Amino acid sequence: MTASTTSSNQATGKATVPTVVPQPIGKDMESTQATQSESQSQDQPLQELSEIFFVENNRRKQSIRIQVKLCPEGVYLRRQTEQDDHINEQLIRIDDIIGSRYGSRLKKRARGGLSSCKNPNANVPEPEDEQPQAAGTGKDNSAFLYIYAYLKKEKPLRRVQTLRILRFRSSNDFAENLRTAELWHHTIRQHKLQRSGNSGEKQLLILLNPKSGSGKGRELFQKQVAPLLREAEAQYDLQITTHPNYAQEFVRTNKNLLERYSGIVVASGDGLFYEVLNGLMERMDWRRVCRELPLGIIPCGSGNGLAKSVAHHCNEPYEPKPILHATLTCVAGKSTPMDVVRVELSRRDKHYVMYSFLSVGWGLIADIDIESERLRSIGAQRFTLWAIRRLITLRSYKGKLYYKLGKTEGKSTEAKSSTEAEPPAPPKTQNVELREETSAPITQQQQIDESNRLASQRLSLPINSPEFKDIPDDDDDAATAAADNETIARNAVDDEFSDVMSLNRSIYRQHADSWHSAVSRRTAYYSVGGQSTRSNRSRLSVAQKIEDANAEFAELVPTGTMPGLQLPLPSADGWISEEGEFVMVHAAYTTHLASDCFFAPDSRLNDGLIYLVIIRAGVGRPQLLNFLLSMNSGTHLPETNNDPYIQVVAVEAFRIEPSGNQGILTVDGERVDYGPIQAEVFPGMIKVMTTNGE
Ligand SMILES: Nc1ncnc2c1ncn2[C@@H]1O[C@H](COP(=O)(O)OP(=O)(O)OP(=O)(O)O)[C@@H](O)[C@H]1O
Questions:
Q1: For the whole model, what pTM was predicted?
Q2: Residue nearest to atom 6 of ligand 1 (CA)
Q3: Number of structural domains found in the chain
């Protein structure tokens, strides 16, 4: 095996499969040097193994000696002959090794072919290449170690599938050879686990949506994902969703999530990831779950914005095999913190909260996304067709936009300049008004009054109205849930303080699809569980009570720092406002909105920033066409902040107040109720599986 052979095979993308054979122990002491005793217990930490192997060189009609060394960095293969001037060392990085297998020769011919080899110093006959042999039977007592690797190559960025086979036949006893192969296998596994900090005891939870994308989720999993999981020796629990909200309920109600699973992998589109995220946020132990349970995505959907953003983040290839590359990322055992955005919106005076990871859209792109659904049958072309249509009949929306600039330290100067400057004034001919928020900073008492007013409105609703029906965790919990609901109802009548709290912190979540009502389990827990708060109530001022309860509540529910949607935003707090007509306001917090839409190139997974792209009315159609056409290359945004029509600002929070009631709003590409909406970034709140993380 030479480096030149390796590279030529890599260039064609084919697996290179040399079989190298260790020299029998005792025949050449120098050639066999395990740096740790092979009889060493496998429970002890193993650091390095080293052996001399032989590979037949047909061209030269001789065997090449290769030293194979296994260490924490990976597997070094060093050719020991001096006659060849080719590069004579190769490192297969431990991060590129997905796993290994050991045993007798694989019955099935190994991918890429299994080349036979001759050990000049051994009297062991060669096995027949095409003749499968049972373990330890026949003439050959060799044990084999199959090392599966996907080498990362730049220019073009790709992963090259590589199989290295080590053949152990130092002893005439198969069991002895097998033990050696097992030791190598075990050591590789130890190094990988050590690298990822994973104990290897828990399994992955895989949630698969069989209906996502073109509806071939199950097939794609069997053909592309399962074989890799086998190579990686990954233990997993596969849950196939049977209906919308299945995944959300599964992760919300599973009591042993942290005990059983090392991570959750969503084999689906962005829609199912949304479900999982929101299900986790509904849990009482959301904080711990977010911290300890990394989430991964294998793109089987149609948009796949998150999968592409994760690949972009860790400089991993995506096309042409997105499923393979994402699976490799999910078994790499590393994770990176990722921002989550808390979105609050209202519908008929009620407020709802949802957690988003991709985008919030108002105007052009949201319209194209949702309205083109009727052309779904024609595939991705639907976006282009509908974009043309919408350019011809261009719409603009009146409303008010507020935003609070984010901290862009360490970001590119372009991003900085775009956030530090005030929005440029559009030309006078445009019907756009810019106005500073003039309302005085809101006092705490005002907040309380407003909350009380809304609370009393809300208390007039029947507490057991179906809109606020709680979902029990499972059958066992049904009785407890019923009892809880009764207590909630009682508390709602004689303890309006709890509801004042809830309103003030805007924790309502309810939606026809998947959001949960204000009287959800967590809210209920707060209402009935705040013993200490209630017992001190008579002696504390209302403001103090709210502050204390907020602190306690913040532990149970991820609350933001923004005032509730019903309250004004104080300009003194750094809020900038703009009132006028907009063609679009689209907020993104990952680089890609879909695998072919490089919408926020400066975005990072955990930069704590929302990229707000504002397009004001008056923008010319050619400029807009150019914007839409350049979105897939990420060159659609103006280079400076001087464009009066298209602007990008990096913010930490924003609010949109549309004037009318006709229009489309989307969150993570799904339509939500039209009306006021606000969002706030929670930096690095969850962890996503990556290849370059911790
Ligand atoms: N078994 C199922 N049958 C029908 N719908 C399901 C099922 N499982 C999940 N769903 C719903 O399907 C919706 C869309 O799924 P998903 O996001 O996986 O695919 P997609 O829409 O094709 O991809 P993308 O969101 O990337 O465009 C999810 O919101 C989920 O609620």
A1: 0.74
A2: 244
A3: 4
